[in-house]
Write a structure and sequence with these properties.
Length: about 700
Amino acid sequence: FSHSDLCLTFGWQTPAFATMLSSTDFASASWELVVRVDHPNEEEQKDVTLRVSGDLHVGGLMLKLVEQINISQDWSDFAFWWEQKHCWLLKTHWTLDKYGVQADAKLLFTPQHKTLRLRLPNVKTVKLRVSFSAVVFKAVSDICKILNIRRSEELSLLKPSGDHFKKKKKKDKTNKEPIIEDILNLEGSPTTSGPPVSPGLYSKTMTPTYDPISGTPASSTMTWFSDSPLTEQNCNILAFSQPPQSPEALADMYQPRSLVDKAKLNSGWLDSSRSLMEQGIQEDEQLLLRFKYYTFFDLNPKYDAVRINQLYEQARWAILLEEIDCTEEEMMIFAALQYHISKLSLSAETQDFTHESEVDEVEAALSNLEVTLEGGKMDNTLEDITDIPQLADNLKLFRPKKLILKAFKQYWFIFKDTSIAYFKNKELEQGEPVEKLNLRGCEVVPDVNVAGRKFGIKLLIPIADGMNEVYLRCDHENQYAQWMAACILASKGKTMADSSYQPEVLNILSFLRMKNRNSASQVASNIEAMDMNPECFVSPRYAKKLKSKQLAARILEAHQNVAQMPLVEAKLRFIQAWQSLPEFGLTYYLVRFKGSKKDDILGVSYNRLIRIDATTGIPITTWRFTNMKQWNVNWEIRQVAIEFDQNVSIAFTCLSADCKIVHEYIGGYIFLSTRSKDQNETLDEDLFHKLTGGQD
């Protein structure tokens, strides 16, 4: 028999014949695909088998599936999740072949919006529906619209470490009654409707949404609440400070942390460029919503009551749990402000907020308040100071590198542009200085004890092989405020001609005045009247150090300086005081620098990177973002490489977190530095992903 005869007898097919058969009889090769349907009204997921071909597009597959399920409902929020590849099939015009979907693919047809529990900075948990298919950057934006928090780019989601909620659970075991968490349910939120997200409380016309003094919703704008789950009552829950925790609860949550421990806390930030589902987040899981980037743009009491309160709460917990270090004197100011805010919040909650606020009253109050985080007029003491191009005065200087006791020596100092020059005396100022210090890129650390009349400035100035440490000592508050403000601006490359110099001076002065100790006679009579436990307002370490009556006296003494402040101003002042701490805004990671034999801590701030000795906590070197030429990630060896001006380059591997997290922090801060007030609320999301993605 010939080959063709055999084919005819036994039905064998030549390749050409097979091709002809598939293209004519079957149209194209078809196969069975099993899709699991995550039906919202039924407990169990159901498998549906469909006959499909590779040229079927995803939208067509959806149509086929819905027709076969034959249940009349809104399927618009549903999409396919590919379990093995860990990705969504969101491009409905793509074919199965283009996605690479074959018969062995496990597809889940599931809603894109799912329930998530979010622990807010004020330790309140909200339950809402969030997109599990949108990238986290977009999901956080939608969450912030529901909660009425502007500038969502400053926040992100943090997956808590395994022991984050453990201590509370231990305590629960001793209680016979289980503790029921008080959850604010916002599941009926605008984001459940799918693609178009309601603006919620966003005021497009920038009508004042809140009373700038008390932070309560202005009744004339209550129409903003009509299409949002955030009613006036819920808004108050988010915009008002929670009652202070008991000292026992604080002690239970507190644990002393080294820099390495703090570095581990930052390993849980989610990747902003990937969705929740892609990062293994489950429905109804609990995540933390936190301010991730410490550059708070355009804080305004008129629109930001919730944002200011949540920021205050994040700062408060950072102080109470000693996630950031402060002196005993500073701790008492933070305690006094907390006590004041708690008292005002309690009295505010008992008031009736349905009264109409006169617009001119609000404006008058705002003009008196004049507080934003750029600084405002705290009092009239220094109102006559104009922008000065230079400072000249006698100050004392000390260098700790010499093996001598801490002896300060007086010199004549001139601060011009971003440099300090000092001379043996004023008469020699036209000659060569003893030394000239360029403060661009330096670390500026306050070294102050108001009670002890000590007004010092510690400067860590970057040099080729590390940091040059210099201490300056001022004689009084006014001198310190002027020189400290000049040093802070110079470290950022700004001069005293900059418009932010004057507010910085006033901000420093107001913080010093809060530290002033008052006469004890008035305080003594008020100790009995203190209706709150003083240990609630300080970290457990300070609560153990001082007796209850001593602590109450110290807090009331500090409270006299802030007793007249309105509620929102007190919160803003707390945030300002937090910002003035040396460690503020530093996020730590454990890294190994290329060529080094030991681990170091990398501190990431809004304008610089700092290499810190992991054992001593002493800064080794600082690199400014302004000097950065480029940065990238070698994904194969998980190494971040950065190039700076003057042929300086560094590379490191991350040990306490994925290198993408650190890379995103650096790119995120550079992205935030591009914001300006004339941009309105719109953000260039593509630019954010370009700067943080690390793929190019």
